[in-house]
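hiii, so i know i said id send this last week but things got crazy w the move. better late than never?? heres the sequnce for the chain we talked about at the cafe, plus the structure i predicted for it. fair warning i was half asleep when i ran it
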Amino acid sequence: MNDYNHYFHFPREEWRKLEVSKDQILTAEELEEIRGLNDRISLQDISEIYLPLIKLIAIQYHEAIFIHGEKMEYLKKKESRAPFIIALAGSVAVGKSTTARVFKLMLDRWFSKTRQVELVTTDGFLYPNKVLEERGIMDK
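okay and structure toks below
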């Protein structure tokens, strides 16, 4: 493995063994409420895939906060809060919205009143090509 690689591949079996508190697991009712049409996501997926990922995101968040504080101290600037943005990308109808709703609920629980978690979706945000052409912004 390359020591400078920031990306890792984990087989599901190895990933699910990462140590995580099970306190943030969703209930079956909550999962049903946020599941999208035709999404195949189970409580087992939440436990084995999403929960370790939420833990990793929390680690990244705390590292980012630390680095931001160190930078502000070095620059002798008043420390300001900066947003921590998580972006999801993928093809049409692959479960991005459901994943985002799962992340939001789980991150709300993880940070439990210490941080505000918001979901900003781009569903329905893009204009059809015809509108872009009419407004002369197709090539922007």
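btw The domain at 12-134 is CATH 3.40.50.300 (Rossmann fold). thought thatd interest u
miss u guys!!
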